Amino acid sequence: MGAFLDKPKTEKQTSKGTGNGLRYGVSSMQGWRLEMEDAHCAVVGLPQGLEDWSFFAVFDGHAGPRVSAHCAEHLLDCIVQSDDFKKNAFTENGGISDEQIEFVKKGIRDGFLKLDEKMKKLPEVESGEDKSGSTAVCALISPNHFFFANCGDSRAVLSRGGKAFFSTLDHKPINPQEKERIQRAGGSVMIQRVNGSLAVSRALGDYEYKQVEGRGPCEQLVSPEPEITVQQRECETDEFLVLACDGVWDVMSNDDLCDFIRYQLTLQSDLETICSSIIDTCLHKGSKDNMSVVLVVLEGAPKVSEEAQKKDKELNLALETKVQELVTMSDDISVSGVMQALSYEEFENLPPGGGLEGKRNVIEAAFFRLKPSKQNQWDSHE
């Protein structure tokens, strides 16, 4: 299958935590890719006296995992060590002025640029042995604000008041502003890629695209500069943040993913399980990439509902009954055949944003209970 495995690696790395009035969950999966190049970071309570700040980030590596792993370990340090950040993020009463916000944004930007400059000097990078790069999307959460910083095509979305309220913007070579910079640096955009090769126009690492003489770090073919956006927190209506790599966004829109998460929060409170279900659903929807998701749940999030749980159990029972009917009718039917047959049926209360794929695990479990001999046969999602 070329750059893909014969069957996906579906083991997940998951974690969860709490603090500063937040709950978070993380899940990641290698999927169909030959190696896992994603990395992530979740820190509640920052150093430098910023115990009431938190940091969450997703890094999507390409051409190897080294840069993404290094970013996950060191980006936060580079940000909080910036003088502009240190001097303006800490305030006695938790409040922060508009002028201080601008300095904090500058500190975040400087942290990205400093990290990118420092990574150039890693021995394996300097020698040219390692040519990897990574997108980066992060959210710094203060008592009163969200600071979003994005470099590449990983994405953060804020759900507020029952809808996807804010989203970072992906940095693609075909974006007019990005294309203009690439062409000014002597490059081209072909097949929607930088010089026909790289699918993102901003990234950390990727130093072979950062060698144009006489141009600064943010004027190269690929820029390490993050786009930074600030949103004031609204405790009553802010529901959750979700940060994910393009392996998730390739198959789910902002609205779809937010609807799916909102629905899951009415069924259960375990954020590891919810994040795992997001990854599974994206795999079932056809994602061929590594997948990582960080979910940060806020005060205004939906609560577990007995009514929603009841409807979900009824749906599961209806699906299991239908699977049994299909297996009884056709002894040779596969999981894909079952999914295709079910797609022509109408079921009430399918997961919003997830649809039938959001219930594939339930369908597979019912199928393999009836056909245990097929348990070890990979049944393609295609």
Summarize the helices and strands and which ones pair or pack.
Blueprint: E1 4-19, E2 22-33, E3 38-44, E4 54-62, H1 66-80, H2 83-89, H3 98-119, H4 123-126, E5 133-134, E6 136-141, E7 145-151, E8 155-160, E9 163-167, H5 176-184, E10 189-190, E11 193-194, E12 204-205, E13 227-232, E14 238-244, H6 246-249, H7 254-267, H8 271-284, E15 291-297, H9 306-329, H10 335-343, H11 360-370
Subcellular location: Cytoplasm, Cytosol; Membrane
GO molecular function: magnesium ion binding; manganese ion binding; protein serine/threonine phosphatase activity
Membrane topology: Lipid-anchor
What is the level 1 CATH name of the largest domain?
A: Alpha Beta
Distance between the termini: 13 Å
CATH hierarchy: architecture of the largest domain: 4-Layer Sandwich
Q: Helical stretch count?
A: 11
Task: List segments where confidence is low: pLDDT < 50 over at least 5 consecutive residues.
Answer: none
β-strand number: 15
* Mean pLDDT across all amino acids: 95
Structural class assignment = alpha+beta
Main sheet: strands, sense, barrel: 7 strands, antiparallel
How many discrete structural domains? Answer: 2
Morphology call:
globular
What percentage of amino acids are in beta strands? 25-35%
CATH topology of the largest domain: Phosphatase 2c, domain 1
**Rg calculated over all Cα atoms:** 22 Å
